[in-house]
């Protein structure tokens, strides 16, 4: 049932102090942000009665991890991570990647696709002397960092090394890491292109290219950067392409970048049927803050991801919630990489129960046990909404999502 709330009894002083500040975007007013115009999404699309997750047929893999032709060190690292039965994308993609084929992997976030491409590449790279040999491109710093952490765990003790090349951090350390000639380069398009243009990063030996969250990279305007990067790579290479959706732009990239690819699709339906979705009507921004604070005061709101529209608004809302007694961190583009990683770790480790984020955190991040997603500002597109609420209800758990809309 949709909330239709007419006041919360919370003191007006705190809400009005929030209202006096610069607005955070959305339909409540304030300075317009540049870029594509926001889509109108009918409120009914934010409402969904959850279907029990148990009703879905579990995937039955054809393999267990011990079936894959991994060496002893990689096999031990996989066991140390507690991996036994592969997910659908892992089960189907790993044999094709080990065989050296180009692969298009269509998979939702949270399906285990990072291990699906890392494990077979690590196996194939062991013993190869050319360095660097592997380029992995991801849309956000957080996702690149997450891939690097997974790589380090899987490659432990195997003599394979990586360099993380992302914006928002000092480039000097990255240049030192590149001088050590790592096997794997993991990075974001902007910084990678910058270092290639400055001749500080060579692509001539790259035998494997992975484009992760390709649809997201195109949404974020990285297509020219990606074309420039790939244009510096050898034509003879293995290319792995992971995306949640296929659009005409992505089809064009597939045609240009991949050679006779195998397509593996394990996508589930567009929205999260097992996430209980509802709307909350609010009179204005200060009323939204009151209602949000009331929700966070309830015991069931244990690990809550709140989405806002602008960097300034997200930071302001996070600070305001902390002042109201709801410990909160913010993650957005104005924070440097170490600040973003620290905030993400505090939220993952449940040192704080609220993280307020722009859409930079909506995709690709593995944040376990999020109980609620709250859209303080409505998303730009319905696709963004689907990715936002996909942060909850993972791994068979029940999830809840609320979206604030203007009072009717």
- Strand arrangement across the biggest beta sheet: 1-9-14-13-10-12-11
CATH class of the largest domain: Alpha Beta
Write down the CATH topology of the largest domain.
Rossmann fold
Name the shape in a single word: globular
The gyration radius over C-alpha positions equals 22 Å
Protein architecture, described:
By secondary structure, this protein is an alpha/beta fold. The protein has two domains: 3-54 and 272-406, Rossmann fold (3-Layer(aba) Sandwich), CATH 3.40.50.300; 65-265, 3-Layer(aba) Sandwich (Rossmann fold). It is built from 14 helices and 14 strands. Strands 1-9-14-13-10-12-11 form a seven-stranded parallel beta sheet, with helices on both faces. Strands 4-5-3-6-7-2-8 form a seven-stranded parallel beta sheet, sandwiched between helices. Helix 3 (88-98) runs parallel beside helix 4 and helix 7 (189-197) crosses helix 9 (223-230). The radius of gyration is 22 Å and the shape is globular.
């Amino acid at each position: 049932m949709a909330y239709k709330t007419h006041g919360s009894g919370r003191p007006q002083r705190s809400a009005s102090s929030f209202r006096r500040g610069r607005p955070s975007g959305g339909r409540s007013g304030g300075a317009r942000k540049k870029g594509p115009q926001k889509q109108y999404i009918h409120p009914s699309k934010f409402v969904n009665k959850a279907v029990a997750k148990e009703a879905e047929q579990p995937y039955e893999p054809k393999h267990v991890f011990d079936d894959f032709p991994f060496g002893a060190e990689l096999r031990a690292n996989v066991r140390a991570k507690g991996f036994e039965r592969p997910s659908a994308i892992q089960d189907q993609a790993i044999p094709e990647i080990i065989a050296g084929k180009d692969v298009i992997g269509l998979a939702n976030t949270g399906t285990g696709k990072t291990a699906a491409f890392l494990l077979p590449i690590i196996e194939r790279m062991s013993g190869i002397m050319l360095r660097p040999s592997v380029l992995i491109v991801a849309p956000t710093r957080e996702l690149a960092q997450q891939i690097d952490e997974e790589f380090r765990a899987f490659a432990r003790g195997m003599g394979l090394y990586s360099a993380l090349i992302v914006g928002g951090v000092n480039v000097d350390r990255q240049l030192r890491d590149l001088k050590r000639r790592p096997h794997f380069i993991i990075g974001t398009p902007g910084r990678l292109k910058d270092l290639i243009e400055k001749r500080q990063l060579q692509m001539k030996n790259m035998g494997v290219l992975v484009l992760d969250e390709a649809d997201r990279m195109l949404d974020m305007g990285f297509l020219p950067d990606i074309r420039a990067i790939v244009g510096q790579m050898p034509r003879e290479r293995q290319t792995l392409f992971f995306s949640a959706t296929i659009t005409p732009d992505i089809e064009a990239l597939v045609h240009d970048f991949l050679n006779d690819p195998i397509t593996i699709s394990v996508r589930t339906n567009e929205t999260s049927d097992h996430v209980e979705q509802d709307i909350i009507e609010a009179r204005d921004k200060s009323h939204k803050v009151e209602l949000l604070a009331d929700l966070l005061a309830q015991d069931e709101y244990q690990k809550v991801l709140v989405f806002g529209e602008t960097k300034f608004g997200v930071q302001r809302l996070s600070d305001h919630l902390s002042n109201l007694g709801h410990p909160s961190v913010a993650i957005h583009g104005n924070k440097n990489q170490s600040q973003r990683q620290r905030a993400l770790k505090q939220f993952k480790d449940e040192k704080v129960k609220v993280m307020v984020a722009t859409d930079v955190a909506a995709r690709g991040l593995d944040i376990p046990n999020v109980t609620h997603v709250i859209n303080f500002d409505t998303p730009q597109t319905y696709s963004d909404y689907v990715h936002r609420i996909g942060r909850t209800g993972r791994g068979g758990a029940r999830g809840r999502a609320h979206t604030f809309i203007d009072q009717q």
